[in-house]
Design brief:
Length: 263
């Protein structure tokens, strides 16, 4: 996520808590003189809210990338003060800590819980973006399980539909394209495998699926050329490689498109 998005998230959290300045302590109150019930005029600092104290400490560690210690403070708030306003923030920041520690499955689960617990919260667009990112970060080599790319596309599309004006939408749209190219490349790699193992009907099926499902993908043209060769009866693996770049993505394509998902 860019620094701008981190700033937007931080500002939103501050605004969320800003509804009551008393949550940040340092407020004063008049004491009442004993006996006559009149205000003594003496001003004493109000005792700091323990949940807010933990949140302040956790946010300080989070700001400096100390996610392992920060998450302990956030979890303590959730466990000890579950009905406090700080608990809502702690839930979200605990998920963020897991994300930054690359515990993507745990982070996705925590974001999911936040969404279920607070479906109308103003941070839901951010939560949807992060759910998508948890899966986007798990995209591996093109010949591996594409589940991460599929889920990422699903979450990003949900974000775009529900929050078209959010600050995360433009990046989500870009990543939809990258993840879609990955999925199309995955289908092309399977077709290649079938050609190598002389399973031409299966290869044709995969290529038709690629063209029907991902017609605008970066590899659609390559898939179409390959299918045309197979339809003409050019079944050899040699004919497959006569199409430039028809196999796995080239190094350049990995860096600029599909493999960017794993960065």
């Amino acid at each position: 996520m860019t620094g701008k998005k981190h700033l937007l998230c931080a500002v939103a959290i501050v605004l969320f808590l800003g509804g009551g300045c008393s949550m940040f302590g340092n407020e004063t109150e008049n004491t009442v003189a004993k006996g006559n019930g009149k205000a003594s005029g003496k001003v004493l600092p109000k005792k700091e809210n323990p949940a807010q104290k933990l949140l302040t400490k956790g946010m300080e560690d989070y700001r400096y990338g100390k996610y392992y210690t920060a998450v302990k403070d956030f979890e303590e708030i959730i466990n000890r003060y579950p009905f406090s306003p700080q608990a809502t923030v702690a839930e979200l920041k605990a998920a963020d800590c897991s994300y930054h520690m690359k515990q993507y499955k745990e982070a996705e689960s925590l974001y999911e819980s936040f969404e279920n617990n607070h479906p109308t919260n103003e941070m839901i667009s951010y939560v949807l973006y992060q759910k998508g990112m948890c899966n986007y970060r798990q995209i591996d080599r093109i010949d591996r399980d594409p589940a991460g790319a599929e889920k990422a596309v699903r979450y990003f599309k949900q974000l775009v539909r529900a929050f078209p004006e959010s600050p995360y939408t433009a990046d989500a749209q870009e990543k939809i394209g990258l993840a879609t190219d990955f999925l199309a490349g995955h289908e092309l790699s399977i077709a290649r495998f079938y050609i190598r193992t002389k399973k031409i009907p299966q290869a044709k099926t995969r290529l038709r699926y690629l063209l029907a499902t991902y017609p605008q993908s970066a590899v659609a043209k390559k898939g179409r050329q390959l299918l045309e060769q197979l339809e003409k009866g050019e079944k050899s693996e040699k004919s497959f490689f006569s199409i430039p770049g028809a196999g796995f993505f080239t190094k350049k394509e990995k860096g600029g498109k599909a493999a960017a998902a794993a960065q």
